[in-house]
Transcriptional regulator (Zobellella endophytica), 404 residues
Amino acid sequence: MTRGQIANVDLVKQVNSSAVYRLIDSQGPISRVKIAELSNLAPASVTKITRTLLEHGLIREMEHQASTGGRRAISLTTVTRDFHLVSVKLGREELRLSLYDLDGQVLARDTLAFPRQQQDALLADLAGQIQRFVRRHGAGLRLIALAVVMPGLTDALRGQVIYHPSYPLAGVPLADRLRQATGLPVFIGNDIRALALAEHYFGASRDCLDSVLVSVHHGVGAGIITEGRIFKSLGRDVAEIGHIRVDPLGDRCHCGNFGCLETMVADAALLRQAEKMLAQGYQSLLDPQALTMAELCRAALAGDRLARNVLERAAEHLGQALAIMVNLFNPQKVLLTGALCDAERIVFPLIGKAIEYQSLPSFHQGLPIVRAHFQDDQTIGGLALVKRALLEGELLQLIIEPKV
Ligand SMILES: [Zn+2]
């Protein structure tokens, strides 16, 4: 047998095992007969695959009364509580670490300052922090993976960082480096794209296959889910909605262009606009010394004209960019996350209106615009990357047949 044939046999095994695991995950408790029927696999193959999954504790049997009465039937369901992972958000000079089980329960969290430093020192420090966290919280648990999510751009397929806004990591094979340091399979990805997937698996877009998530914080980012998958997240980044030009005469963006959406609706931009209007003498409840997004939203909801104005303009611009996404991807749901969601009552209807005026009627009719479920969990995207690797077979295969 040639090397190519061996690889193909492995691939077929991986594809079949993951197809069975996916069915049990999405439809369990489910019988072996039903799995065979839905997967088009021979019953003998299903028996063999489920035996392997059972041996590794990935699924378990449940006995119950068959719907037809008579003898008791056996169904299969996935085991999620026994498997754990560490998810790291490599943020802007900040590191967040969380320990989850596969069910999404959080067992431990840690947040620490993580200053800029030289590449080698940075990588050693990062590995050291992760190892300490694992030692402190992961003892006795079955850890199956490490995930790292970050702002900027990543090549998830190669496990490489393309660009990070705070650290000199361009071109670094981060997944390989951390795998060597921890001995765990490592999955990396952009934080917003991973968050969109987390919303699809566990959150607000669980009920649909196509959705768009937009996040407004330091910058403006988006994640597109099409047919239950992140649209293009493995090699090439997409959905850089923050750099859609909204105002040709606008401020200079860090990308080099002028008037990008990000320069107009990111948190800092909104606070700058409010500050400027206060300095010009507009009447307002806002205290210029204590200007935050929370205060801006609170004042707007209390009827403050200035605060309302700033948020309304932001909503219109966001809506304009979102309408482009709606025209391109026809999502079943639009999710928003960010500080301006505090003023949901003001912001969301205006975004809806802008989408309504600027996209195809059949695309926007009845289109829900909702708050993302995971507003405050910055590491949840990592859990989604691990779950994806399990469902799509790559990680499942490593658990079933660990590479020595
Ligand atoms: Zn830009």
In short: Residues 204-371 form a domain with the Nucleotidyltransferase; domain 5 fold (CATH 3.30.420.40). The mean pLDDT is 93. The radius of gyration is 24 Å.
